[in-house]
Amino acid sequence: MNNENFITVVGSGYVGMSIGVLLAQNNIVTIFDIDKSKIDKVNKKISPIDDTHIKSFLNEKDINITGTTSKDKAYKQADFVVIAISTNYDPIKKSFNTVSIDHVIEDAVSRNKKVSIILKSTIPIGYSEFLSQKYKNNKIIFAPEFLQEGRALFDNLYPSRIVVGSKCEEAKKFVNLLVEGAKSKDIPIIYTNPKEAESIKLFSNAYLAMRIAFFNELDSYGITKNLDVESIIKGVCLDPRIGDGYNNPSFGYGGYCLPKDTKQLLNDFENTPEALISSVVESNKIRKNFITNEILKRNPKVIGIYRLVSKKNSDNFRSSAIEGIIKRLIKHNLNIIIYEPKLEAKNYLGFKKINDLNNFKNMSDLILVNRKDDLINDVNEKCFSRDIFGYN
Q: What is the pLDDT along the chain (392 residues), one digit of tens a residue?
């Protein structure tokens, strides 16, 4: 590799590790994280997150990737700093909390005046422009990610599109690095202004949330009217204008992105007439209330929660749909137990974790399953799930 760039990726989650591994095929990549245990894993070529392709690349590919907890090592030599840390939604401020991003940029530019900053974290519309003005730096560039948990590297290797909120030379150079690392080469690329790139990210996730909410409401209707929901969904989705995908009923949408991104977009609609985005957010609450009531109708004595993760092949619990159901069930003082092998703690939200799956099955008289699994097929009669098609 003759034209290697020094690239630091801040954050060792799905976004950070997938972009880091992709770029490490042809560049020198450093993963920076304050969590030493995660950095130790990176340095041992062990993936800190559950992603089959990332694990495979770390084990089998000759890629130049290391980890550090040192800010000096992370930033001083870097040509690019890619910020891939989470931005939680603050319900009081009604906006993403960007404090951690501010700290990273301050740390990076104070150590390296020439560095280009690539923002992968989801941000409010107008934020990257604000940063450019604050630091008088046109090399702070928003380049959103469009990834799925559990297949983040795959989605970087075969991207649906590359969107960059800048038309400067540094932006084009970074896009070339992404294309160089990708397996597919005929990739749609959009260079646009910062606010438009930020809007593409939020509106994309809002649409996915809207589609999930639509099919969940269809499912609620089918349950209430005692209809065959599977045949209705199949009939609807055979229309090529609608198609398959994001049509499998669930306990609600959840995970890293959709809940917070829809709320952020709703806030960005301030002073703009709207009805649809607020309806999507409200629909998800209504769906979880509906599912909770369906559970309560069964008068369970012991409710087993089978997996806390948002979806199959994921290790993310945050804002998962099942978490929303658990919080609603808490109000009814029910006996709840949890089976989640990815959970290190002995309890979750005050409820006991059961490590042995057979004990879990025997102790539960109703098992909540957001996404079905062959491991519990033997107790289907105990299971409550709205997973019709068996995919995420």
A: 457 899 999 999 999 999 999 999 999 999 999 999 999 999 999 999 988 999 999 999 999 999 999 999 999 999 999 999 989 888 888 889 999 999 999 999 999 999 999 999 999 999 999 999 999 888 999 999 999 877 899 999 999 999 999 999 999 999 999 999 999 989 999 999 999 999 999 999 999 999 999 999 999 999 999 999 999 999 999 999 999 999 999 999 988 789 899 999 999 998 999 999 999 999 999 999 999 999 999 999 999 999 998 776 666 677 789 999 999 999 998 999 999 998 888 999 999 999 999 999 999 999 999 999 999 999 999 999 999 998 87
Q: pTM of whole model > 0.90? A: yes
Closest CA to 160 of 149, 144, 174, 176: 144
Active site residue 257: yes
Domains of the chain: 6-192 (3.40.50.720), 201-384 (3.40.50.720)
State how beta strands 6-10 and 80-83 pair.
Answer: parallel
**Could you tell me which residues come within 8 angstroms of residue 60 by beta carbon, excluding any fewer than 6 positions away?**
none
Q: Of the listed 168, 237, 257, 383, which one is catalytic?
A: 257
Q: Tokens in use for 202?
A: 């939020």
